[in-house]
Amino acid sequence: MKGVSVTLDNSKNYVDITLDPASFEREIDSKSLWNELHEGQFKSLYISQSALKNACDKANHYFKTNDNTPVQERIGERRNTEVEFKISSDGLTATMVLTAPYGGRLPTADILCNMAASAGIVRGLSRKRIESLLVSLNKSAPGAVIEDEVARGLPARDGRNSRFIPLVPNALERVLRPQTDDNDRVDMRNLGEVICVKIHTPVLRRESPTPGRDGYDVKGNTLPAVKGKLLEFKMGNGTVVSDSDPNQLNAAISGMPKYRDQVMNIDDTFICSGVNVGSGHVNYEGAVLVNGDVTEKMQIKAAGDVTINGFVESARIEAGGDIIITEGAMGKMSDDDGGFSCQLVAAGSIHVQHGQGIDIQCTGDITVGRQLAYSRLQCGGSVTVGQVGNPQGNLFACEIVSQGKITAGTIGAVSGSTLKIDFSPGFSKLLERKDTLDELLRQLRENNSRHKEKLDLIKTRLLPAEIKVKVDDAVELLKNETSMLNWLELKALEMRQQKDDYQAAIGVVANKRLYNGVTLKLNNRNWRSEREYDRCKVTYENHQWHYHPQV
């Protein structure tokens, strides 16, 4: 390009341009000239667009005014790699930012390590990460910026509080975990020894809290750990702290152990060989263990768990804990009032090996060993038919009200008999609680905003001393009201999350087959199986039921 001369200075580090307006054929375009410089011998050096434009604008002005004064300007330079370190606010990580050189030198890993130390990074520096960044830098175009984490501290690990380890299993856990024989085969009939402990038997152990582990940040500062707390025993009924070991809880009476919510209870246990006309009804303020059958029209009512190692026929059983029936339960529906002759009512969970014609009500989960048919179920948890790890049982011709997932091998029957599953009652209660909380929250927001505006207005005025005291009291009341509002805001968030969790938890899983005649309901959203499906699941997403085949 005539009239343009670009050279390096004597130190070979700077780029100078000389523009001679007398030699111009036309005005110089700074963009075109900048593009030419980046394609020639100066492409690896830093060229300042603004400096180049200023020089061109000045020379073009001279060209138009017939002024032949040459224009000399320094427009570029050779730049070495730029290095910057960024340390996070908590000091646990450090990032290195590298800007690729313009014809300058690349640093070595040793130089970068020394620079990191000068920047205060003395622990957790990874030389391997630095070397990896240098490899990337070597391949980068001039001026490219790359960054990555090169140092990492060790966060403090707080100590663990005391943990409580039950030394004996609950009766329901024993039933859901059948024993294996010498050939490692599971025997569904062998449920181990009946869990009934004698007096002075160790039932609960407290593990000591741990001290935790101190950490450090990249600057070398120690991050102290918080020691775990020694938690006291929550003393349940029928237990006592061991005289020889303060971390051990022993049974104070002989009975059936029940561990729930970190509380171990020993229920005074009534043990009998069967409940029939000869024994009479059982009403006991403790646990009941029946090593036999419960015959027709008999009743068992217990404050604790009820465990029946036998068969239940057309009887009523009520428990303040769990109901465990190791064999089966059977009844029939009354033609008069639609009631069932076999009724199981529990405050906890219910397990039955197989059942037909029974009315089950509980606040926990329902587990069935093999098959359940022609029954009515209402539970606050899930329904599982088959082994808990791999449910392959049969479920058909039932009416179910549940708040959790229904899982079985085969759901429904070839005959198309109706199986109704309703998830609405639990969801409706949840929505009712949520609406009540939202309304309370709305009123409190309005009140809090109004009170704050009035107090701000009062503070702007000149007040007598006796009025200021009352204003200070009002400010304190406003703080308490604001704290209450913040607490309710968190509760509202939790309630919304519970609503989402409920919808995600419900549904049906058929591990073998889902037959025609199965209906699902959540308020006004319904789904019905109109044909036979292979392994599948039905879930509730985005306010609709969705069918998913399982491969």
Automatic annotation (TrEMBL):
The name this protein goes by in its record: DUF342 domain-containing protein
Keywords (A to Z) from UniProt: Coiled coil
Keyword Nucleus: no
Taxonomic placement: Bacteria, Pseudomonadati, Pseudomonadota, Gammaproteobacteria, Alteromonadales
Organism (species): Salinimonas iocasae
InterPro entries attached to this UniProt entry: FapA (IPR005646), FapA_b_solenoid (IPR046865), FapA_N (IPR046866)
Domain of life, per lineage: Bacteria
Coiled-coil stretches: 427-461
The keyword Coiled coil belongs to this UniProt entry's keyword annotation: yes
Pfam family, one: FapA
Domain Flagellar Assembly Protein A N-terminal region: 84-261
